[in-house]
Amino acid sequence: MNCPICGSSKTKPEERFREGVFYRCGDCRVVFTHPMRAGSREYYEESYGALAGGYSEKKWEFREVFNSLDSLGFRTGKLLEVACGPGWFLKMAEKKGYDVYGIDFNGQAVAYAKTLGLKNVLVGDIGGGFEKLGQKFDFVVLIHILEHVEDPNRLLNQIKEALSDEGVIIIDLPNERRTELKFNLRKRREGWDYPPHHLTRWNADSLSNFLATRGFKTIYLNEERISSLAQVLNFVLGLIQINTATGLATVAGQERGDKHPHDGKLIGHGLILFLSRLKRFLSLILGLILLPPIYILSRVFYIRGTNLFIVAQLK
To answer: Coiled-coil regions in this chain (predicted)?
Structure first.
């Protein structure tokens, strides 16, 4: 199995799941799935609707974009967000003085973004097709996008074409080395870290190398540190999720009376609904118990959070 990122044949199976296998490349260190098959446009529109990718202004990755750009001396310019969703990040950037543009394949989300007064947003292929915007950009932003695409190389090449001289790419994605996975008793990850959601997994080394070999130099890199109460709460909830999840089949599917993946029998709707609610209640109680001690530990020890953030500039 050759690596879809660097083409190396030095790959080894790392994790098997129902629909395929995750491999790790021995050269570039990227973890990738086979087959590399992303969710369709219809899948994401049905799953998320108009508010796909929606975040509040308090999200760590939103604040990190502006904090990093400020610290690097960037204050304004043309900014493109790939997979802009309903436009909440773009609206923040516009308020800070950036000339903002966005592209997303979710027509509902783009329509919502326009209601926020964002004029330069359009429906298009997030894997490329930026020429429709007819602009060169000083900044291109990908917030939790790279891990979703089937062909990261094509996407990066399209971004290079869309960037101005010495243009900057900003990427935020899940950190493969997040601390909560070290306490993963079930030896599996969160449901969202599998296809059709995530096709690749990255750490600081593999992401920096990916950009360096394609003409970018890293000028800022940060791994989210768990420190605030809200971050600790999310960490605890994630920790509970990966240790209590019942498999890749969703509870929602089971509630519809789908066949159980193990015994093939129909699961009763009422029983599954009751067990699902009981598990959520018990998880909440467990979370409340774990929250205080983990918060105290976070003030002393480095707890690596979900986000890996990088800013790189064209050489």
So the answer is: none
What CATH number is given for 11-226+304-314 in this structure?
3.40.50.150
Q: What's the rounded Cα separation, in Å, for the pair 276 and 220?
A: 42
> Any residues with CB less than 8 A from the CB of 310 and at least 6 apart, and which?
170, 171, 172, 204, 207, 208, 211, 218, 220, 221, 222
On whether the CB atoms of residues 70 and 152 are closer than 8 A, the answer is no
For residue range 102-153, list pLDDT tens digits in order.
Answer: 999 888 889 999 999 999 999 988 876 787 888 999 999 999 999 999 999 9
Q: Cα–Cα distance between 29 and 3 in angstroms, integer?
A: 10
Which has more confidence, 207 or 264?
A: 207
Q: Could you report the per-residue pLDDT of 212-224, keeping only the tens digit for each?
A: 999 999 999 999 9
Structure tokens, 299: 């003030």
Exposed e or buried b per residue across 86-120, where buried means at least 16 C-beta atoms within 10 angstroms of its C-beta: bbbbbbbbbeeebbbbbbbbbebbbebbeeeebeb
- pTM (predicted TM-score): 0.82
Return the CA Rg of the chain. 20
CA-based torsion, 55, 58, 60, 66: positive or negative = positive
- Tokens representing 135? 């602009």
Q: Which of 188-192, 291-295, 303-307 has the highest mean pLDDT?
A: 303-307
**CA pseudo-torsion sign 196, 16, 280, 192:** negative
End-to-end CA distance of the chain: 32
pLDDT band at 262 (very low <50, low <70, confident <90, very high): very low
- The residue behind tokens 């990066």 is 156
Reported as type and span, the H/E element at residue 112 is helix 107-115
Domain ranges within the chain, ordered by starting residue = 11-226+304-314, 231-298
- Grouping H, G, I as helix, E, B as strand and the rest as coil, residue 258 is coil
